[in-house]
Amino acid sequence: MSETAESLNFIEHIVEEDLQGGYPKKALRFRFPPEPNGYLHIGHASSICLNFGLGLRYNAPVNLRFDDTNPIKEEKAFVDAIKKDIEWLGYKWDTERYASDYFQQLYDWAVEMIMDGKAYVDSQSSEEMASQKGTPTEAGVDSPYRNRSIADNLEIFEAMKNGDYQEGSHVLRAKIDMASQNMLMRDPIMYRVLHKAHHRTNTDWCIYPMYDWAHGESDYIEEVSHSLCTLEFAMHRELYNWFLDQVVVSDKVRPKQREFARRNLSHTVVSKRKLLQLVEQDVVNGWDDPRMPTISGLRRRGYSPAAIRNFADTIGIAKRENLIDVSLLEFHAREDLNKIAPRVMGVLDPVKVIITNYPEGKEEWLETENNPGDELAGNRKVPFSKEIYIERDDFKEEANRKYFRLKLGGEVRLKSAYIIKAESCTKDIDGNIMEIQCTYDPKSKSGSGTEESMRKVKGTLHWVSVAHALKAEIRLYDRLFTDESPDTHKDKGFMDFINDESLQVITGYLEPGLKDAKVGEQMQFQRLGYFCVDPDSTNDNLVFNRTVGLRDTWAKIQNK
């Protein structure tokens, strides 16, 4: 490897140490194991980048395995969304797997554990079992069914599988140690009865394995070498290994579980349960709402795969949880879009400008660059006419010397067009400016080669021709929560911090070339920010989402 040891994260150090200790490189295999009960979010993106990144680094296969053991919450639609997100991020999996592929093998192993006296059927209620669990400082109490005969356990367990019992009537528990200091080792549940159709196996099964039982055994079946998960599963590692001890044979790869810290993102929540609550209570418009921290939401908002990968690389992999400011994610969005997004002109808060000395009925198509930072981006033509729109806050009747936009008696250059001078303005009865009357210098056209075209003025404004402007719906998205950690308050719930201004819908006026923009296409509205075409957009109703502003203005807003 070309990287120095210091450049490796601690997970990579673990892999390197294993290789140096004699572990065969050809036996390396990783996996990304999402549960298909919701959409992937930005936290999952870090795990995706870690696992698939390890695969790329070591030229090792990476499985995509859906841990689909709970038919109550899981759907094929979530499976499809997850696959789409991973592909969009730029990764390819070696094989597509499902925990449900292994239901028979898991059942057979459970039967063997019963026969070995290491599992038993418990017929207590969940409340009774909870009361016997004990506390971290007090041992638990054995279930009255813990010493059921092997024959009875086998008979009841098979009847559970066949659908002969109601939900909640029986569970299968591992027989470990009710006095263990690790509460998870106190006879954990392996199977429960569920009469629910599964998205893949339909009604073939009436019992479903618990995550702790299915996960490690699935890793083992797939010969995963390193099973990487977040810190909340650190206490599960002992159970993970105990379950493996029951099935591992010497000639197969034994998976190694290791944990890394989850990275929390400010001004949002990443709990699937809380994200689902936002969806179900119509706080947002679905899992892919551009305000959601889901990968689908970020894609719809206009983020690029590279921006998310770069963000994941920047925050890295750590052993301690940390809150990452969302402005870092926004920075990476700007940095990438600045390179790839063409520049266009749009006016979002228009005021009309009449160029009084411009010939009536005349129009010109002026050339302007698509991206000044990209020599290969080329140029395009935009129409110019007697009446144009500029941004309302680009004009003041009176302003000090540091104001370099348009003011009465002052001059500005219109981007790729002419220098204009504000002569007068018209107001309504409330004093709102309705129209600005300007004159233009005919010799000052950009790129014309005249001396006047080279004349310097301090302000340059974007604009659109009124006669040619495309009317569009503009969705201005901002942070969904006003608090940086909305789900950490003891006296309030996360819903108390919803930002009522997280979405503003306005009408904008855009240059006409954007009528052919495709869904997902990204661009910079000059001086305003980065935008993309929303899937709701049609020929009759163009819809653009603001991805991110040209700079971080949130801190200024918060400090007002």
TrEMBL record:
Reaction(s) catalysed by this chain's protein: tRNA(Gln) + L-glutamine + ATP = L-glutaminyl-tRNA(Gln) + AMP + diphosphate
Ranges where the record places region Disordered: 125-144
Keyword Secreted: no
Name of a matching Pfam family: tRNA-synt_1c_C2
EC number: 6.1.1.18
Superkingdom assignment: Bacteria
One BP term from GO: glutaminyl-tRNA aminoacylation
Domain Glutamyl/glutaminyl-tRNA synthetase class Ib catalytic as annotated: residue spans: 28-338
Protein's name in the database: Glutamine--tRNA ligase
Family: Belongs to the class-I aminoacyl-tRNA synthetase family.
GO MF entry, a single one: glutamine-tRNA ligase activity
NCBIfam families, A to Z: glnS, PRK14703.1
GO cellular component terms listed in the entry, alphabetical order: cytosol
Keyword Ribonucleoprotein: no
Segment forming the signal sequence: none
Every Glutamyl/glutaminyl-tRNA synthetase class Ib anti-codon binding domain range: 341-441
